[in-house]
Each structure stands twice: as structure tokens, then as C-alpha cells.
Amino acid sequence: MKTHCPIKYVLEYIFIASPKFLYNYLSTEDGLSEWFADKVIVKDNIFHFYWNGSEEKAIISEKKDKEFIRFKWLDKEINNFFEFEIDSSSINSEITLVVTDFALEEDIKESEMVWNAAINKLLRIIGGKLVN
Asked: What backbone phi and psi angles, to 5 degrees, belong to 91?
């Protein structure tokens, strides 16, 4: 039985990059505009994300500098956030970017493909590389 409520899924990307440099691309208007959305504008602490002419609004609901940021969607009642966590606890220069998001069960594969494409774009921009 399929659910009509979005369910949580988590993606992990291991790569080589500076956590401080990466966090800037996950948490700022300019950084997010380069890889995450067609355009991002921040007004009164509200992030306006634009994709293909449509707009979604979010606020930062939680953050820890250079480690974690959670965006809360303003127009969704349940499962209304997405977040990025940077784990740089490895003894080498590898970091893990953990992406948490929500989608309907039948849309998760497509959502994962969208995230994979976005993260690959981010890596090209910051000069990072995925670790297999």
C-alpha cells in the first residue's frame, strides 16, 4: 500500500573538499544559486528558491556553522524540511555530505537522481571529487 505522506530518505556522498568552503555553498544565497536552484534570493531571512519558473520558500530552522544546516519549507505541513550535514571526522581529507529529504514513495528514485545530478554539479563547481 502506497502512502500519500512523504517519507524520509537519506543520501550520503563521500568526497574530498574543504568543509568550510563546502558549507558556504550549502548555506548562502550565492552558493545555493550556483548548484541547487536556478536562482535563490534571500529576503527577511526567507530563502526564495526558483526552479523552472516555480518558487518555493524556506527558512533556516537549525544550523551549526561548517557542520549542519536545515531548511524548513514554509508551504508544507508534514515532512517539511531538507538538510545538509557535513561529517569531516575522517582521519584523511575525505568528508561525508549527508542529505536528508522527503518524497512520496513512488518519487524517491527520481528525487535521488535529482540530488545526484545536483551534487555532481556542486562538486564540479568546488573542484571536489567523489570517493568510491
From this structure: -75, -15
